[in-house]
Design brief:
The protein is of the alpha/beta class and about 180 residues long. Helix content is about 35%, strand content about 15%. Helix 1 packs parallel to helix 2 and helix 3 crosses helix 6. The structure holds flavin mononucleotide.
Length: about 180
C-alpha cells in the first residue's frame, strides 16, 4: 500500500504584531493534517521564539536561501499562508520584489500557481494608502486569496493590538476550499 504524504504548507510570517502568536496557526494547521514549514522575513525572526516554532512545526525555521552546496531544500509546497502580512511585505510582494527568501518563494510559487492565502495585519492609516489598495488588487488579480473585507479581516485602528483575536483559521479555511 502506498502511504499518502501530508500536504505541505509554507507559513510565511512578516514582522507584524500577531507574529509572536504564529504557533496558534501552526498548531491548527497540523491538527487539520498539514505538514508545516515556517519561513519568516528576516525582520520577523525577532518576533518569533524560533526554538518553539521549530518544535511545534516539526521542522527548522528557514529565513534565508541555502548557500551553494548546502543540502536540504524545503519539500514542494501544496499551499502557502502569508500571516500576519505586513504593509511592507505586501507592497514589496505585489511590486515583484524578491529580496528575501520569503518574498522569493511568493514570487516563484505564486507564478507557478500554488494556492496562497493572505491575512494582512495593517492598521487603518496604513490601509488608507492607495498604494496598499493597489497592491491588494494586484494580488487578487494574481489569484491570491486576499482575506480582507467584511466578515474577513478589516484594518484595525492605529495604536491598537488585535493579536489576540487574529483570525488565523480564515487562511486555512480558504486553502481547504481551494483544494476541493
Ligand atoms: C512591535 C512591532 C509591531 C509591528 N506591527 C506591525 C503590524 O502589525 N503591521 C505592519 O504592517 N507593520 C508592523 N510593524 C512594522 C514592521 O515591522 C516594519 O514595517 C518591517 O519593516 C516589516 O518587515 P517585513 O515586511 O520584512 O516583515 C511593527 C513593528 C514593530 C516593532
Amino acid at each position: 500500500m502506498t502511504e499518502r504524504r501530508a500536504p505541505v504548507l509554507y507559513v510565511i510570517v512578516c514582522a507584524a504584531g500577531p507574529a509572536e502568536r504564529v504557533t496558534v496557526l501552526i498548531e491548527a494547521a497540523r491538527a487539520r493534517g498539514w505538514d508545516t514549514y515556517v519561513v519568516p522575513t528576516p525582520t520577523a525572526e525577532d518576533f518569533l521564539d524560533l526554538d518553539e516554532v521549530q518544535r511545534i512545526s516539526g521542522h527548522p525555521v528557514r529565513s534565508a536561501w541555502r548557500r551553494p552546496g548546502d543540502g536540504g531544500s524545503l519539500p514542494a509546497a501544496d499551499a502557502i499562508v502569508v500571516a500576519p502580512a505586513s504593509y511592507n511585505s505586501i507592497n514589496k510582494w505585489a511590486a515583484g520584489t524578491a529580496d528575501c527568501y520569503a518574498l522569493g518563494l511568493l514570487a516563484e510559487l505564486g507564478g507557478a500557481g500554488t494556492p496562497i492565502a493572505l491575512l494582512p495585519n495593517v492598521n487603518s492609516a496604513f490601509a488608507a494608502n492607495r498604494v496598499y489598495q493597489r497592491s491588494l488588487d494586484e494580488l487578487r488579480a494574481s489569484g491570491v486569496h486576499v482575506l480582507v473585507g467584511p466578515g474577513l479581516i478589516e484594518p484595525h485602528p492605529p495604536r491598537t493590538d488585535n493579536a489576540e483575536h487574529f483570525p488565523w483559521h480564515l487562511a486555512l479555511d480558504a486553502l481547504e476550499r481551494s483544494r476541493r
